[in-house]
């Protein structure tokens, strides 16, 4: 399996390449999903590609944010720059941008970002239809679905190490709706890493552990995964070096995990969703970030100075102090002593989060390219050098033939010494010299011959990648919903009265249990649509396909690409596709958008689902009501609401509704009202524009950042 490593800056890029990464993924100043990483400017990008390609390492450029209409040309220019400077592929998310790239850069290889949420075979076939050759699968993908995805022929890339977003991939709107800084545009505020109150306890109840799948590499290989991916463009070069070297090794699982924890360890790791009990092992509520490696119990406290028996710190070490599984503060080394920034006690855990000595060792690795060099010096003939590495061969001739030696002639040892000088190139040469007795050549000419040969080989190694060819065109053909007017979404058709039906054009059913759809009343007086969920994993498919096939539904609302393979009924793209600009496919505008589109339905009302969770919020499965609440540190209450197919899922709803009933929004004709969970009386207030309480217009007033 190919190993794909993160490169948030030049140091991380070199750490990845020097430790043997097969590919790196990196961003430019804009349009990458890690805007806070250092990333690579135009000149830096060209140098980065050259450096990686020298070692045969591929470069995937991240252009995987949502892109505003006014940014499309700049995004296309960035893609052209990456293409012209040798990027092997672009990682993308925005369907409108993908369509543009297919027209303007048909030879650029495209990979579906994990932000596209591909997690089943139907979704994989859909992105194949739009000309994407590889899918970085959602971390929530189940093993049985990976095997089915492989059968579609798409190339599979899967995250094996690093941060695990608690929300289903690509559908987190928490940061955007709270601050206008969108995670889907690379500016996540990490609100999932904040403290919340849940059932009378305070903790990091939305903070997922890091994933570590080192022990499951054989299983992933059997399932058909083509490339394994390390998350971490915001992490250190030390982290990249350690993670790449471990995943390139063949060390025992326990040793590998111990080594990985020395550079970053959020919650002692989890296995994503590859194990059956995974939904109950995702969260680590005691700390929001790196908890490091256990050093020992604090045995002595003097002021803010703490000690652990038998342990001597390195000057650059960093620490975290924990008590009963929860973080209470940190510590650093000053004057040889460990100084806490909190009121530590004897018996507290001291955990090292940064190992200064190890850092020096990790960044000292320097990769060399084995090179075979054959030098021939013969009287009356130009000197020749043949140099080869990794299947690439070059030949260089000197201009002046060697002369008869009037004194000491040049020897093979002289040639070897000259060609061992590789300071300007990362070569490890093995040199053969064919020299006739009595031949003389000035050392300056020999050095010039070496420089020319090595420069030629360097250039040839860089230019071997990528191999360009025209890619599959954009061809997402389907019947699309052509209705207009007002769509009202409910979770139970029993809430629809004659008065309500008379005021809308369509009823959309977004049930809490898709197995019960066929039992619900269907005579509601208006055409019905079935709203499909963001997720379809494992046996969910049978349930969702049967529900969509019911005759009562004239079309479906799609929130993920799998819908295109599940039904032949007309499709309306829902908010799960996150359309923020003009799109020629009928759609409901994203509730994080900052403008309306001409061809879309406005998300006119609803407690927007800021997150969709594939894990259970409880420690074990209980006979729950399907309703719960998380409260933040400001006292804002966010409802948790469950929906089901074969698996249980939860939506975290905004604390106030998205409401476009103000005078500024009276011109909107095509509207989508999300009134799931509401009574008939409440729905009427929504339709009247008299729904009381707090409200938000989302980013329509403040802009989307």
Residues in helices, as a percent range: 10-25%
SS summary, helix count: 17
Q: Low-confidence parts lasting 5 or more residues at pLDDT below 50?
A: none
Backbone shape: globular
Average predicted local confidence, pLDDT? 94
- Termini, distance in Å? 37 Å
The total of beta strands comes to 37
Structural class: alpha/beta
Beta-strand portion reads: 25-35%
Please tell me how large the radius of gyration is. Answer: 30 Å
- In this structure, how is the largest beta sheet organized? 9 strands, mixed
List the helices and strands and how they pair.
Elements: E1 2-6, H1 10-18, E2 23-27, H2 42-54, E3 58-63, H3 72-84, E4 89-92, H4 95-104, E5 110-112, H5 121-129, E6 134-136, H6 143-150, E7 155-162, H7 174-179, E8 196-198, E9 201-203, E10 211-212, H8 217-223, E11 227-230, H9 237-247, H10 253-261, E12 293-297, E13 300-302, E14 305-307, E15 318-323, E16 326-334, E17 337-340, E18 349-354, H11 356-362, E19 369-377, E20 384-389, E21 392-397, E22 403-404, H12 412-419, E23 427-435, E24 439-440, H13 443-463, E25 486-490, H14 498-501, E26 506-509, E27 528-531, H15 540-548, E28 553-558, H16 563-566, E29 571-573, E30 587-588, E31 600-606, E32 609-613, E33 627-632, E34 637-644, E35 648-653, E36 658-659, E37 671-674, H17 680-688
Helix pairs in contact: 1-2, 1-9, 2-13, 3-4, 5-6
């Amino acid at each position: 399996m190919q190993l794909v490593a993160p490169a948030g800056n030049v140091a991380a890029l070199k750490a990845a390449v020097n430790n043997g990464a097969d590919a790196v993924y990196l961003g430019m100043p804009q349009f990458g999903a890690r805007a806070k990483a250092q990333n690579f400017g135009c000149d830096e990008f060209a140098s980065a590609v050259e450096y990686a390609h020298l070692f045969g390492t591929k470069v995937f450029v991240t252009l995987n944010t949502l892109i505003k209409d006014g940014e499309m040309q700049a995004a296309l220019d960035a893609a052209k720059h990456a293409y012209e400077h040798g990027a092997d592929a672009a990682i993308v998310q925005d369907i409108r941008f993908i369509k543009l790239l297919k027209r303007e850069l048909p030879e650029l290889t495209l990979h579906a970002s994990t932000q596209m949420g591909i997690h089943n075979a139907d979704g994989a076939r859909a992105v194949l239809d739009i000309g994407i050759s590889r899918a970085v699968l959602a971390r929530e993908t189940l093993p049985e679905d990976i095997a089915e995805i492989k059968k579609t022929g798409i190339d599979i890339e899967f995250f094996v190490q690093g941060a695990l977003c608690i929300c289903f991939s690509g559908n987190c709107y928490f940061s955007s709706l709270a601050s206008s800084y969108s995670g889907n545009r690379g500016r996540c505020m990490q609100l999932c890493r904040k403290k919340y109150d849940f059932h009378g306890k305070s903790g990091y109840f939305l903070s997922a552990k890091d994933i570590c799948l080192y022990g499951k590499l054989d299983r992933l290989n059997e399932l058909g995964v083509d490339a394994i991916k390390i998350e971490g463009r915001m992490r250190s070069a030390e982290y990249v070096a350690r993670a790449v070297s471990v995943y390139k090794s063949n060390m025992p699982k326990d040793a590998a995990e111990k080594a990985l924890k020395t550079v970053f360890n959020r919650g002692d790791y989890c296995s994503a969703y590859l194990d059956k009990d995974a939904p109950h092992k995702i969260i680590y509520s005691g700390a929001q970030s790196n908890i490091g490696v256990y050093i020992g119990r604090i045995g002595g406290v003097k002021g803010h100075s703490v000690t652990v028996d038998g342990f001597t710190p390195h000057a650059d070490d960093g620490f975290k102090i924990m008590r009963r599984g929860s973080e209470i503060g940190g510590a650093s080394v000053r004057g040889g002593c460990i100084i806490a920034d909190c009121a530590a006690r004897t018996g507290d855990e001291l955990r090292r989060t940064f190992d200064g000595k190890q850092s020096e060792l990790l960044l000292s690795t320097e990769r060399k390219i084995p090179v075979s060099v054959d030098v021939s010096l013969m009287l009356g003939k130009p000197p020749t050098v043949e140099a080869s590495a990794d299947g690439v061969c070059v030949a260089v001739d000197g201009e002046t033939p060697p002369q008869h030696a009037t004194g000491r002639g040049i020897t093979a040892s002289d040639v070897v010494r000259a060609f061992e000088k590789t300071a300007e190139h990362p070569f490890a040469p093995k040199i053969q010299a064919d020299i006739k007795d009595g031949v003389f050549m000035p050392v300056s000419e020999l050095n010039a011959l070496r420089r020319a040969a090595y420069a030629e080989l360097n250039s040839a190694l860089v230019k071997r990648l990528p191999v360009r060819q025209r890619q599959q065109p954009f061809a997402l053909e389907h019947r699309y919903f052509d209705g207009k007017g007002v769509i009202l979404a409910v979770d139970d058709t029993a809430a629809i009265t004659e008065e309500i039906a008379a005021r809308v054009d369509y009823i959309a059913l977004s049930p809490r249990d898709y197995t019960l759809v066929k039992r619900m009343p269907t005579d509601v007086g208006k055409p019905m649509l079935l709203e499909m969920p963001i997720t379809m994993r494992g046996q969910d498919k049978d349930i969702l396909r049967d529900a969509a096939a019911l005759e009562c539904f004239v079309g479906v609302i799609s929130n993920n690409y799998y819908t295109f393979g599940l039904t032949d009924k007309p499709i309306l793209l829902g908010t799960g596709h996150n359309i923020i600009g003009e799109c020629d496919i009928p759609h409901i505008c994203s509730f994080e958008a900052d403008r309306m589109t001409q061809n879309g339905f406005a998300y006119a009302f609803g407690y927007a689902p800021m997150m969709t969770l594939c894990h259970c919020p409880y420690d074990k499965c209980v006979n729950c009501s399907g309703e719960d609440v998380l409260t933040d540190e400001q006292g804002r209450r966010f409802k948790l609401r469950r929906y089901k197919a074969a698996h249980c899922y939860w939506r975290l709803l905004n604390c106030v509704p998205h409401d476009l009933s103000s005078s500024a929004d009276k011109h909107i004709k095509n509207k989508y009202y999300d009134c799931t969970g509401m009574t008939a009386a409440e729905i009427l207030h929504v339709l009247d524009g008299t729904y009381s309480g707090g409200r938000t217009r989302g980013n329509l007033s403040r802009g989307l950042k």
